[in-house]
Amino acid sequence: MILAPVWRTRFFAAGSAILAVWLAIDIAHGRFFWPSAVAGLLALFLLARAQPLPLGHLALIIASAGYIVGNRGFAQISLSSRFPLFPAEIALLLAGGLLLVHSAWRHDLPLRRDPLNLAILAWIVFGTLRVVFDVGTFGFIALRDFALVYYAAFFYLGQDLARDAHGTRIFLNVVAFSGALVLPLYLLFERFPDFFFNVLSFRGNPLIYFKGDLAGTFIAVGAVLFWLRFESSRRVWNAALGLLLAGSVVAMNNRASLLALVVATGWLAVRGRWRFAVTQAVAGVVAIILILSAAAALRISWEKTPVFSLYERVVSIVDPAGQRAYRGDNTHYKGDNNLYRLVWWQAVIDETLDDNPYLGLGFGHDLAERFVREYYPENSEEFNVRSPHNVLLTIFARMGAAGLLLFLAIVALIALQTWRAIPRSLAHAAPWCLVWAMFVSACLGVVLEGPMGAVVFWTTLGLAHAHSSESEIPLDAHPPETLTS
């Protein structure tokens, strides 16, 4: 039986009227979960109809841009104050659900039978088995810590994104421009924090709230991507912007982002793409000469210049125990910071080795308790940082030697594919540089334990791997040789 058009219109109108009344009642009583959900679904429907990208791919791009630009502010956005459903989880549910539907339609699996796919799957499965036993002991907090593992599912979503060459170019361009946008926003955030906290906010939470090491890392990512855009397009403004962003990373008082830039640049240089390293070195030498010459002319001690600050930051990297004395206005605390990390790392290693070196302490376990007793013996205030600023140690503590070995296998496969991919084309080099920049930063900060870094990292890794395995994953078009559309 087929309804006449007039009856279809009547049924649709009646259903819409009932839905409108229901949502109006919720809004009148201050309940915004379902109104927000319906508005979000309607917005997604309109987006899907208004632009050519698949909805799941669009969700990945929007989430990545949001976490880069909004950082921990974007990460705090939730549809409901009673039921936390954050952007990463929304993107994972939406894009993941659509991927499963499309995979069933295509009669294939969302994962490929290659070493990296299987290694990540094994790590996720092991982490899932581990957290099953931890939920009963630690409750919801175990699931929160488990995000370290389940965010790896974005790898498979990024791999699916690589099927669309147009979507790939858009993703890389969005990451590059978002990284560039972080620089002026970060400067404004440092200068006018009250505006971001009190005006540009949602439900009392700032929409943009930068975490220093992540802001610097994303600026470093933007620097590398814009330089590679210059090498492919020969447009001078790309080179100028890339060098500006690189110089900003060097000037920032953050060592993790500096190392991220150095490692990404190093991969390019080792595999034959040395122009970025040479240009940075030449520009750096020129800048140092000009700064020291101006200081000498003005009779200013070099210890008061940015050159001395950079010198002490570099020296502090090879001073893990914080034994040196640091005198710079912005670096005097670097020794204490190094000691802080060293004591925490040693406390985590000792506790894991003592209690459960093979399977770890579990998700939900307080990795800071022993550290606080040793480093802050007289501190009565609550210490709410849960990760020891090193993703490898976090994995070892949560999942033991078994989980760490699985993750190190993933890192080894990433290194092997990076070695092979960078010489092939600039399009292959770009995502791998991004992956390494974020991984290095994760070894010195809380990056992959939260969505701000994890969503971008795992999505980009999936995309990079898919383009490096073209025989495994057919693309809609040949991989672009340039980073521009």
What fraction of residues sit in β-strands? under 5%
The helix tally amounts to: 21
> Mind summarizing the main beta sheet?
2 strands, antiparallel
End-to-end separation: 49 Å
- How do the strands of the widest beta sheet line up side by side? 1-2
Query: How many beta-strand elements?
Result: 2
In one word, what is the shape? globular
In sequence order, what are the helices and strands, one letter per element? HHHHHHHHHHHEEHHHHHHHHHH
**Low-confidence spans: pLDDT under 50, at least 5 residues?**
471-482
What does this protein structure show overall?
The structure is a single chain. This protein is mainly alpha-helical and about 475 residues long. Helix content is about 70%, strand content about 0%. It has helices at about 5-30, 35-50, 55-70, 70-75, 85-105, 115-140, 140-145, 145-150, 155-160, 165-190, 195-200, 210-235, 235-250, 255-270, 275-295, 305-315, 335-355, 370-375, 390-420, 425-440, 450-470; strands at about 200, 205. It starts with a helix and ends in a 17-residue tail after the last helix. The chain has a two-stranded antiparallel sheet with strand order 1-2.
Tags for this entry?
mainly alpha, 21 helices, globular
Quickly describe the structure.
The protein is 71% helix and 1% strand. It is mostly helical and 485 residues long.
